[in-house]
C-alpha cells in the first residue's frame, strides 16, 4: 500500500499536472499529435474515403466502358467509310474509263462526219465546176453557132436569088415528106 500512497504523493510534487499548458518540445509533441490525428481520420474517415474511392473507381470504369464503345463505333464508322470510299473510287474509275471511251467514240464520229462532209463539199465543188464548164462550153457553142448562122444567112442572102431560094425550099419540103413516109 505504500506504493499507492507514494504515487499520490509523487503527484503532489508536480505542480503543473493538474493544469493545461503548452509544450514547446516539438520532437516530443509532433508524433503524438500526428498519431492522434491519423487515428481519428482513419476511424471516422475510413468509410467516407472508401466511398469516395469506390465512386471514383466506378466513374473511371464507366468512362473506360464508354470509351471502348465509342472506339468500337468509330472503328465501325471508319470501316463503313472505307467501304464507301472504295465503292466511290471504283465508280469514279468506271466513269472515268467510260468517259474516256465515250470521248474517243465522239472524236472518231466527229472525224468521220467531218471527213464525209469534206468529201460531199469536194463532190459538190467538182459537180459545180463541171456544170459551169458545160454551161460555158454551151454558151460558147451557142455564140459560135449563132455567129456561123448569121454568117451563113448573110452569105445566103447575098448569094441567093429568089429562084434558088424557091428550089431550096422545095428540096427541103421533099426531104421532110420522105422522112414522114419512112416514119409511117
From TrEMBL:
Pfam families: ATP-synt_B. The chain crosses the membrane at residues 32-49. It is found in: Membrane; Plastid, Chloroplast thylakoid membrane. GO terms for molecular function: proton-transporting ATP synthase activity, rotational mechanism. Keywords: ATP synthesis, CF(0), Chloroplast, Coiled coil, Hydrogen ion transport, Ion transport, Membrane, Plastid, Thylakoid, Transmembrane, Transmembrane helix, Transport. Residues 64-98 form a coiled coil. Its main location: membrane. Signal peptide: none annotated. InterPro entries: ATP_synth_b/b'su_bac/chlpt. It is a single-pass membrane protein. GO terms for cellular component: chloroplast thylakoid membrane; proton-transporting ATP synthase complex. F(1)F(0) ATP synthase produces ATP from ADP in the presence of a proton or sodium gradient. F-type ATPases consist of two structural domains, F(1) containing the extramembraneous catalytic core and F(0) containing the membrane proton channel, linked together by a central stalk and a peripheral stalk. During catalysis, ATP synthesis in the catalytic domain of F(1) is coupled via a rotary mechanism of the central stalk subunits to proton translocation. Component of the F(0) channel, it forms part of the peripheral stalk, linking F(1) to F(0). Belongs to the ATPase B chain family. F-type ATPases have 2 components, F(1) - the catalytic core - and F(0) - the membrane proton channel. F(1) has five subunits: alpha(3), beta(3), gamma(1), delta(1), epsilon(1). F(0) has four main subunits: a(1), b(1), b'(1) and c(10-14). The alpha and beta chains form an alternating ring which encloses part of the gamma chain. F(1) is attached to F(0) by a central stalk formed by the gamma and epsilon chains, while a peripheral stalk is formed by the delta, b and b' chains. In plastids the F-type ATPase is also known as CF(1)CF(0). HAMAP family: ATP_synth_b_bprime. This is ATP synthase subunit b, chloroplastic.
Amino acid at each position: 500500500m505504500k506504493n499507492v500512497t507514494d504515487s499520490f504523493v509523487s503527484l503532489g510534487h508536480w505542480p503543473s499536472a493538474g493544469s493545461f499548458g503548452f509544450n514547446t518540445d516539438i520532437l516530443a509533441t509532433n508524433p503524438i499529435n500526428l498519431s492522434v490525428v491519423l487515428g481519428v481520420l482513419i476511424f471516422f474517415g475510413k468509410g467516407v474515403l472508401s466511398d469516395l474511392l469506390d465512386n471514383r473507381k466506378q466513374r473511371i470504369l464507366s468512362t473506360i466502358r464508354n470509351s471502348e464503345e465509342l472506339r468500337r463505333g468509330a472503328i465501325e464508322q471508319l470501316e463503313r467509310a472505307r467501304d464507301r470510299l472504295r465503292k466511290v473510287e471504283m465508280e469514279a474509275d468506271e466513269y472515268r474509263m467510260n468517259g474516256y471511251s465515250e470521248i474517243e467514240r465522239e472524236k472518231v464520229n466527229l472525224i468521220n462526219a467531218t471527213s464525209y462532209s469534206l468529201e460531199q463539199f469536194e463532190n459538190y465543188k467538182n459537180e459545180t465546176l463541171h456544170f459551169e464548164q458545160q454551161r460555158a462550153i454551151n454558151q460558147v457553142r451557142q455564140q459560135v453557132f449563132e455567129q456561123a448562122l448569121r454568117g451563113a444567112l448573110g452569105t445566103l442572102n447575098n448569094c441567093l436569088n429568089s429562084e434558088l431560094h424557091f428550089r431550096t425550099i422545095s428540096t427541103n419540103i421533099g426531104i421532110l415528106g420522105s422522112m414522114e413516109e419512112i416514119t409511117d
